[in-house]
Write a structure and sequence with these properties.
Helices cover 85% and strands 0% of the residues. The protein has 89 residues and is mainly α. Helix 1 runs antiparallel to helix 2 and helix 2 packs antiparallel against helix 3.
């Protein structure tokens, strides 16, 4: 265990952040999974709904520092591409 007050506090902070980050990351991954399932089922209405919800969750994760902004942009771009491809067919 850490011996200095500052290191004890830092450990406490990092543990709190780790738990929060894990929760946010899990929520985003679940939402992406739901979107992919809707796309694979060719359910455009459900996919559009999930796309909007997932976008909001991803943007929130970027704000909290869980995801890098480029990772978020890449993920949203791939999702939009999949959604547009679904609409074209």
């Amino acid at each position: 265990m850490a011996g200095y007050n500052s290191s004890v506090k830092r450990h406490r902070q990092s543990e709190t952040r780790r738990v929060r980050n894990k929760s946010v990351r899990s929520e985003v991954r679940t939402s992406i999974k739901k979107f992919r399932e809707a796309v694979s089922a060719n359910n455009k209405a459900e996919a559009e709904k999930e796309f909007l919800e997932t976008q909001q969750l991803i943007d929130g994760a970027v704000t909290k520092g869980v995801y890098h902004k480029n990772t978020a942009s890449r993920t949203k771009s791939r999702m939009a591409h999949a959604l547009n491809k679904l609409g074209a067919s």
